[in-house]
Amino acid sequence: MADTLLKGGEYLIAETPCADVFTPEDFTDEQRQMGETTEQFIENEILPHIEEIDKQNFDIVVEGMRKAGELGLLMMDSPEEYGGLELDKASGMLVSEKIAYSGAFSVAFTAHTGIGTLPLIYYGTPEQKEKYLEKLTSGEWISAYCLTEPGSGSDALGAQATAVLSDDGSHYILNGTKQFITNGGFAELFTVFAKIDKEHFTAFLVERSFEGLIVGAEEKKLGIKGSSTTQIILDNCKVPVENLLGEKGKGHKIAFNVLNIGRFKLGACVTGAAKGALVDGIKYANERKQFNTPIAQFGAISEKIADLTAQIFASESLVYRIAGLLDEKLATIEKGIDNYYDEYLKGIEEYAPECGISKVFCSEVLAKTVDEVLQIHGGYGFVSDYPAERYYRDERINRIFEGTNEINRLLIPGMILRKSLKGELPLQAEAMKAFEALMTPSFDEIDDEIPFAREKALISNLKTLFLILAGAGVQKHMDKLANEQEILLTAADVAIQIYALESAVLRAEKNLGRVSEKKQELLKAAVKVFAFDATEIAGTAAKKGAFFIEEGDTLTMILSGVRRFAKYDATGLLEAKRLLARAACEEEKYIF
């Protein structure tokens, strides 16, 4: 348990001791066993049928979900009083990561266990849970989540679906169309959002058998072809009044709180997918010969493998750091209290910025991974005989799922700045200190005898840079900053890279004394390789932000700060990359 639990977004102004972060090396034997069980399930029950699943043989998907239910994989978040496991977030993320190896099946699984089931767990009445939860956690029924409409993507609350109470008061009559509904083709229970009397945004539990619910045709998609995606049409659909979920007019609470978890879970899933794709890329690079030499031995290929290894290390570090934060926060809530789930969801909402970071950063690491793995395969990566082609197609949706990456990038700094305006984070005071640092020369020397001293100094400097940009943006635009999307996007990129880099450094620092000398060198190499890339991305974003915000002498001053604070001595970078690539190719796996 951390001595002091940071608030959401507070990482930008506070230091975190490495002992306070949860890392994959901290898994218990029980957690590791759960991960292995999930891996064996995917290997034995799903992967042999993956081609059939991609041809939309949904019987295999449904049967796979039932087998997952038998193993207890669908009840991780379900309360113990309803036969569930009610596991910690770290365990849930590990299962999500392992499920990701299953391609399109993982989409059905995560939609069901996440946005499909969580609304019922968090907001359902005891009677609703008694009626539906066991069916969902056993895999007897599959669930789906109906929020998006043809005319409303990111503007979820702009939904046009309506609900009107019947004359006898026994049921609501729902009308409207829901778009892009995962599991739509075979789900039995839908969480549907509609506006009562065209005004009160509300959630309903709607069974497939209810009169007036029509399932549309399967969408013809670029990727995740083995998942079901349909419209759900509500044509005077009759829903009993007892199936209203939560409170009338409070559907937005359900939608947004469940999406926070969805974003976080997606981070774990795409990290698992990236690991699987990387391993295939490494194996192919070892097998494929050009000029009588395995292409893995060529620098152009080995550098790709090193870069991807370091990126995935950061992605994994970030996901489990957030899992640990959530678990510690949720552990402070007394389980027996009447409003337990209200407090539980407030605890998750506290870390909404970090959940958004997880979604954006990890999905973009997967994007880079599948692109490079296809490139490693050359022309063979472009044909469906090799899995690289499927990885490439399946990846693309992850930057759209759970709120586009652009929307999440706007939300991350927006939520942090709102916390500042509410007095929850002293960003204004810290921004003033940052401006003082900008105008004060620094003569601090770095002690290279201290592990990761250079990277820690870099993180501190990048935080100063973020505060300078945020302070300048607020000073110029005040409460209108929320409308300056281009500025917010640059601030988000700096904030994301800071969190990812700090997560990687803290994980490496925490585990340095626990591992062999060889593994110590690999940890140091991964941090160095990632720190170089993170600095380049954050520095470019900060420079762009400076040009967006200021001009004249103030711009010149901030640009000098960018040069000073986004600077990293990556001496030994080539050796670090070669070390990572060599180890990955020798072991033919993700090495952390």
From TrEMBL:
Its cofactor is FAD. Residues 144-237 form the Acyl-CoA oxidase/dehydrogenase middle domain. The keyword Flavoprotein applies. It catalyses: a 2,3-saturated acyl-CoA + A = a 2,3-dehydroacyl-CoA + AH2. Keywords: FAD, Flavoprotein, Oxidoreductase. GO terms for molecular function: acyl-CoA dehydrogenase activity; flavin adenine dinucleotide binding. Residues 249-412 form the Acyl-CoA dehydrogenase/oxidase C-terminal domain. The keyword Transcription does not apply. This is Acyl-CoA dehydrogenase.
